[in-house]
Every structure is written in C-alpha cells, then in structure tokens.
Amino acid sequence: MYAELDSRKRLSLGKVATAPAYVVTPRPGGAILLEPAVVMTEGQAAMLADPDFQASIARARAENGPGVKWEGRRRPRREGLTD
C-alpha cells in the first residue's frame, strides 16, 4: 500500500487500521511503528504489575480450568409485552 500525507501532515489509515487506538513509535530511517494499544488507569497498571496478583490469577486459572465464554443473559420477558 502506498499513501501520502495531506497538507496538514495527516495519513489516512482507514483501510489498514484494525484497532481503535495505537502507540506510535518513530523508528530510524523515517519508519513509524504503530502498535495496537488499550488505555487503563494507573491503578489497573499497578495491579497487573503486582507479582502477588499475577500469582493469584495463575492459581485461579489452574484451579478452575480454561473458563467459559460469556454469552450474556437476557432478562425474562414480562407477560403481555410484544415486540
């Protein structure tokens, strides 16, 4: 794919972007690296970096198996309602 910057130095990524947010890293030689990213609070980052928390998650996974995909729950329909 070939692309050119517009007059405001913007580049459209609509055809190739797969994530809503990216970390942008300029590389030697003019290359630009885009890495999909998520935003989290400082508290979440601290929790994920905590070795005790990581060990707790590993134990829970070992004890409970691979888990189940959540399909969501629908509220029961009330009598007399129509679509």
Task: Give me some keywords for this one.
flat, alpha+beta, 2 helices, single chain, two-stranded antiparallel sheet, 83 residues
Question: Would you kindly provide a written description of the structure presented here, covering whatever features stand out?
Answer:
27% of the residues lie in helices and 12% in strands. With 83 residues, the protein is of the alpha+beta class. The protein has a domain at 39-63. Strands 1-2 form a two-stranded antiparallel ribbon. A hairpin with a 5-residue loop joins strand 1 and strand 2 (32-36). The model has no long low-confidence stretch (mean pLDDT 85).
In the predicted model, the low-confidence regions spanning at least 5 consecutive residues are none
Between the first and last Cα atoms, what is the distance in angstroms? Answer: 47 Å
Number of strands: 2
> What Rg is obtained from the alpha carbons, in whole angstroms?
22 Å
Largest sheet data: 2 strands, antiparallel
Shape: flat
Q: Major sheet: order of its strands? A: 1-2
Q: Which structural class fits the helix and strand makeup?
A: alpha+beta
DSSP summary: helix tally: 2
Strand content: 5-15%
Order of helices and strands: EEHH
